[in-house]
Specification:
The complex is a heterotrimer.
Chain A: E1 2-11, H1 15-22, H2 25-28, E2 35-42, E3 45-54, E4 57-71, E5 75-84, E6 87-99, E7 105-116, H3 118-155
Antiparallel strand pairs in A: 1-7, 2-3, 3-4, 4-5, 5-6, 6-7
Chain B: E1 7-10, H1 14-24, E2 28-31, H2 37-42, E3 50-53, E4 63-66, E5 69-73, H3 78-83, H4 85-89, H5 91-99, H6 103-108, H7 111-116, H8 124-130, E6 134-139, E7 142-147, E8 152-154, E9 157-158, E10 165-172, E11 178-185, E12 195-204, E13 207-216, E14 223-224, H9 226-232, H10 239-252, H11 263-285
Parallel strand pairs in B: 1-3, 2-3
Antiparallel strand pairs in B: 4-5, 5-10, 6-7, 6-10, 8-9, 11-12, 12-13, 13-14
Helix pairs in contact in B: 9-10, 10-11
Chain C: E1 14-20, E2 23-29, H1 35-42, E3 61-64, E4 67-70, E5 83-85, H2 98-105, H3 115-128, H4 134-140, H5 152-167
Parallel strand pairs in C: 1-5
Antiparallel strand pairs in C: 1-2, 3-4, 3-5
The chains are: A alpha+beta, B alpha+beta, C alpha+beta.
Amino acid sequence: MGIRFEGDFTVTAPRDEVYAFLSDPQKFAPCLPTFQSLEMKDEHTAEVTVRVGVGKIRGNATIELRLKDEQPPTHAAYDGKGKVMGGAFNMETSFDLEDADGGGTVVKWVGDLNMFGKLVALAGGLIRPVAKKDIQKLVDALQAELSGPQASGAAG
Amino acid sequence: MYPAPFRYHRAESVAEAIGMLSELGEGARALAGGQSLLVLLKIRFDEPTDLVDLARIPGLDAIEQRDGEVRIGALATHARIARSEIAAAIPIVRDCANGIADNQVRSRGTIGGNLCSGDPSCDWPALLTTLDAQVHCEGPAGKRSLPVDGFVEDLYATALQEGEIVTGVSFALPGPGSAGAYVGFKRCAPAYPTTSVGVQLTLSGADCVDARIALGSSGLTPIHATAAEAELRGQTLGEAVIRRAAEAAVAASDPIDDQRGSPAFKRRLIDTLVRRGIDVARRRCAGEQVEVSHEYY
Amino acid sequence: MSTTELAAHEVPKVAIELSVNGKRYRREVEPRELLVQFLREELRLTGTHIGCDTTYCGACTVLLNGEPVKSCTVLAVQADGGEVLTVEGLEQDGQLHPLQAAFSEHHGLQCGYCTPGMLMSAYALLERNPKPSRKEIRKGIQGNVCRCTGYHNIFEAIEAAAAAMRKE
């Protein structure tokens, strides 16, 4: 089952700084909601563990995330594969950076998630709404991280 | 398929169950009939360390009516509720109890488990919201009763605190001139509903004195369609009024896109089911015997 | 999903005692053992089939304390102290149960995979309702899926069995 997520958000940090942050899993991964741990497998590959779930049902999802395309300071892409309760998934995600009118940077991002397994058969329809909430939390955390206290307060 | 290993504990009393669940902490789950929980465990969606079996606790399965109030114990199964005098007297309860899954699941599944699973496809939360029921809970901090509206807070999440269990539900016996219907559509008997709708009307002739409408399988939680109720309350039930109520119910829904149907399909279905629910409730208010339940192919 | 994953050997087994087809059994089981596994693997009563394994198809239907259940969705520990009737318990003294005879007579099966569950649901129906209408028969086997027959001959078989049982 494939799901595409996309969106954009604006931060006050300049493009170079945003690029450096988003192309380094060690920097951005801690912004993932319920981030647990990160281990660098090699220069371009990180194994990230996050806690996911609904209600009392919580489990770890592990994602092997590889930076596969680098075009500083405007574009980068990752691919990833991982396991989560009752299923497995592949994902591809990329971002494009543009200077925002009046300073700062616009981050345009897209993610394609492909899920497999029993979870999809039994509860596939719930994956999008659950993922959507977590993505919103990630975007909020990235905006706070890349906008400094005043800017994120203004955006609030 | 079988679940990941867990330890098994059998509670003999409510106090013992609360003690076990509190002590065992967040890895523990309460087990009643297991018709929602075991399915999740078998696909390894959830891997608790401990199960606390509540099913042998005496006295939690009573179905009784006293002083204008109906009380159903948490361990009452769907099948027993469907066969009870309460279901014979209150058709909307029968509609729901008989509509859930199939004979085998109804033999095991309980009203308390159905309410506590927090699964958006479960029918009792929507039915009980239609009847403005109270949920009776007991936990380390003692007893409390909560309105069922809002008890299921989010996907698989309820208002229960750690160590707390549901002991039963209660609602007022519908008065004269008040009747309801619970209607749903599913792809086949064992499947969860594509959507379902509960309607309870209090009529004086063709005038709607009061209305309650709730939707199941129509979003991430049961939905109390208050705007739809407002369209009916104080109105003479006619085509335009019913259309506005159905539209308001559809507007309150937020169906997910899944193998049961697209959101657009489900909205059409909700519209149809609200109209059907109002029609059946109205006929029942007038004393007509109408048998409905979940429809399937 | 738990943070501390348990290995099966770390979990204490639970002693259960139950009656299956009138015979008493005492066993120690893993808490996660399903009733259907207990019947098929511990007791070697392989007449109860595992079909979908997701509480859907009804092939694993048995009676627990007189009520039909999907034994793939009942833990063996939940059946402790109970009375189970499986398809093997229908035949008495080498005589087919009227339901079994009627399924045979009316070709109420093709591949036979769903048949044990069908028989148990039909048995539960006729216990409660000796003279079911066609509609009541449909409802009685609503939790049992047959992919071969189109159900028609199953309805005929259940009607015939009901008639045969009423004459006794």
